[in-house]
Amino acid sequence: KKDISAANFVMHEIHCSRNIEVCRYCSESIPKSEIKNHIESEHVQVTCKCQMKIEKSLLKDHEASACPLRPALCQYCDIQLSFNKLQDHEIYCGARTERCGGCGRNIMVKELKEHPQVCG
């Protein structure tokens, strides 16, 4: 976008009203010749693998940060599973025990990071 001089404003306005259309979904100014393609590529509804219907342009963000089926790593064992199963898995996985090489006690995996501070 740039400033338009007052002398050229009327011509600019006529040009825009003939050639530019405002998208009814995102209010972006689109050339009239491309509006159909814009709507089909950006605003058409698609179905994510989680069965949620979403605009095509928002799908990548949804899959990366909001989809319950997005891949997630367990903080304890680094196994990859879907985000909606992560919490139950981490409760189980963090409750497993491993023997401490320093004191010989069995320590829950979820407490291994803090254990060296109290190991004695």
From TrEMBL:
Query: What's a Pfam family in this record?
Result: TRAFD1-XIAF1_ZnF
Please name the GO terms of the biological process aspect recorded for this protein, alphabetically. Answer: negative regulation of innate immune response
By its UniProt entry, which Gene3D superfamilies does this protein fall under?
Zinc/RING finger domain, C3HC4 (zinc finger)
Query: Can you tell which superkingdom this protein's organism belongs to?
Result: Eukaryota
**One annotated Gene Ontology cellular component of this protein:** mitochondrion
Q: Which GO terms describe its molecular function?
A: zinc ion binding
Which interval of the chain is the signal sequence? none
InterPro entries in UniProt? Innate_Immune_Apopt_Reg, TRAFD1-XIAF1_Znf, Znf_RING/FYVE/PHD
Tagged with keyword ATP-binding: no
Q: Which PANTHER family match?
A: TRAF-TYPE ZINC FINGER DOMAIN-CONTAINING PROTEIN 1 (PTHR16295:SF19), TRAF-TYPE ZINC FINGER PROTEIN-RELATED (PTHR16295)
Q: What does this protein do?
A: Negative feedback regulator that controls excessive innate immune responses. Regulates both Toll-like receptor 4 (TLR4) and DDX58/RIG1-like helicases (RLH) pathways. May inhibit the LTR pathway by direct interaction with TRAF6 and attenuation of NF-kappa-B activation. May negatively regulate the RLH pathway downstream from MAVS and upstream of NF-kappa-B and IRF3.
Write the protein's name.
TRAF-type zinc finger domain-containing protein 1
Q: Which organism is it from?
A: Steatornis caripensis
Gene name, please?
Answer: Trafd1_0
